[in-house]
Please model this.
Amino acid sequence: MSTYLITGANRGIGLELVRQLSTRGENVIATCRSQSSELHSLSVRVETGIDITCGDSIIKLRENLNDTKIDVLIQNAGIAEFNSLSNLDPRSIVHQFEVNALSPLCFAQTMLSNLSKPGKIALISSRMGSIEDNSSGGSYGYRMSKVALCMAGKSLSIDLRSKDISVAILHPGLVSTRMTGFTSNGIKAKESARGLIQRIDELTLENTGTFWHANGQILPW
Ligand SMILES: NC(=O)c1ccc[n+]([C@@H]2O[C@H](COP(=O)([O-])OP(=O)(O)OC[C@H]3O[C@@H](n4cnc5c(N)ncnc54)[C@H](OP(=O)(O)O)[C@@H]3O)[C@@H](O)[C@H]2O)c1
Model:
């Protein structure tokens, strides 16, 4: 049994990761801003009031964790706001950068002393953060924030190799969640989480720093 800490665990992909990992017998610590009834029903340890952009709440989390060892840190929390060229809204772009890129990096750094060795960090990015894969343009804030998260993940994979911590940068697929307006074109969170868990299970120091689709495909930067 390993200990997993998952951010943004009250709904969507994060909730499903909690469900599947706890069902297979892992020890799960779920963090969220506010607990949902679905998360409450899973009977795992929940740390509420954790806004990943708020330094005080991350410090509170670390105090609550005390010397609890985390084997796998899954940084799933994220936002997507619409920014077309005619509707740039710099504040929205900065906010997405803060939530999707800067905060996961700072969160990982704060949690380092709690991470096991060997340990794993999984960053839930997006193929919208792939420059080579961008064929449709737009979504400035989201794309820019996720490409920055990919870069943070790559640097973390290099910097943490000597500490025996491996890092995966993951795309969950197009998933039917609130973020995508529960699109009928998307896969279910259940299928996405199954693939993400498989990728995390297969993560080693040999393949650290790779950008994977949940289905196992290696994505271009
Ligand atoms: N769905 C897709 O097709 C898709 C595709 C590519 C990548 N992703 C990525 O997958 C991850 C999960 O997305 P999802 O589809 O499950 O979206 P979702 O249903 O909208 O869930 C987003 C989660 O992030 C949390 N969150 C947002 N801002 C936060 C903050 N400042 N502090 C703490 N938690 C925060 C939300 O908490 P609240 O309930 O408190 O708002 C919620 O738990 C995201 O990183 C997203 O970018 C999703």
About this structure: The CA atoms of residues 195 and 214 lie 5 Å apart. The mean pLDDT is 97. The two ends are 33 Å apart (CA to CA).
